[in-house]
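Following up on my earlier thread - several people asked me to post the actual chain instead of describing it. Fair enough. Here it is, all 117 residues.
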Amino acid sequence: MIYHIIQKVAWETAVAAGSYQPASLHNEGFIHCSTRDQILFPANELYRGQTDLMLLCIDTNRVTAPVVYEDCYETGMEFPHIYGPLNLDAVVQVVDFPPNDDGTFTLPDSLPFDMAN
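Reply from S.P.:
Thanks for posting it. Predicted structure:
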């Protein structure tokens, strides 16, 4: 299971289009994702205070594009990247991801664990 932070309107657009192809796919060649343990790093670094976010819970066994774990930014962490459009049937759950009162994020209680656990 990997996770992707997304704005609600972007998810609604993807559902209407039948696949998810964010700007990062066109600009960088992949879709940024995180493992469960990594979610809060980009959330608090890049999305602090945003109130319109959701988490896509993605079953990597269902993703049709290649999923590659790599450290593209020399953070010492290998993040999962999807190298192609995300097929929507790989998304097994969508979870609201609101910030705390101070704008930081914590993991939602409803976030599923990796299916292998």
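The two ends are 10 Å apart (CA to CA). That should answer part of your original question.
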